[in-house]
Amino acid sequence: MNKGRLEAFSDGVIAIIITIMVLEFKVPHGEQWADLLPLWPVFLSYVLSYLNVGIYWSNHHHLLHTARQVNGPILWANLNLLFWLSLIPFTTAWVGENHFAAQPMALYAADLCLCAVAYTWLQSRIMRSHGPNSVIAQAVGRDRKGKISLASYVLAIPLALLGWPLPAGLLIFVVACIWFIPDRRIEVRLSQE
């Protein structure tokens, strides 16, 4: 099957996710700069989530660029990823509205963890479909970056639940920083083809 519809659908869902997140901003009553101060937790959670969704979009684009075609398991794995990504606006709003409290932060970390698991599953479906010598299999290799990210999300959940939501949030931010530096593995492999 052609991958064009999968890419278009995924891009549309991700665009809607970002739109829903920004709609959580409520205009303050007042005209002074100080009236914006109560919105800082909502804005900060939005920035962190926008960064994470943007990273997933960019990596998803690169991942699908390696696929020649898609099949049923790839379609379902992609829908699974989009499901967990679609929960980010909810978890983002809960974290922001509650000033990065423990339980909202734990749920946010759990959602990001499930996004990472879903992305890994999608990646594995594409590798299985295209074989061990495919561009994606060679580019990903042992995927240390992915494993470090997943472990960090797993660690952030109990950190938040044990009363350290800000260190958990910092760990999530560090993972985003790791991925913000563009992952050139796929681009390098594609340029060698």
Q: What descriptors fit this protein?
A:
globular; 76% helix; 193 residues; mainly alpha; 9 helices
3D architecture notes:
By secondary structure, the protein is mainly alpha-helical. The chain has one domain. It is built from 9 helices and no strands. The longest helix has 29 residues, at 102-130. The mean pLDDT is 91.
Short description:
The chain has 193 residues and is mainly alpha-helical. It has 9 helices and no strands.
Determine the strand fraction and express it as a percent band. under 5%
Instruction: Give the termini distance in whole angstroms.
Output: 22 Å
Largest sheet: none
Report the C-alpha radius of gyration, rounded.
18 Å
In percent, how helical is the residue content? Answer: over 70%
Shape: globular
Structural class: mainly alpha
Query: How many structural domains can be distinguished in the coordinates?
Result: 1
**Continuous helix count:** 9
Give the ordered list of helices and strands. Answer: HHHHHHHHH
Low-confidence stretches: none
* Beta-strand segment tally: 0
Q: What average pLDDT do the residues reach?
A: 91
Task: Give the topology, please.
Layout (H helix, E strand, L loop, with lengths): L3 H19 L17 H27 L5 H15 L1 H10 L4 H29 L4 H6 L3 H18 L3 H16 L4 H7 L2
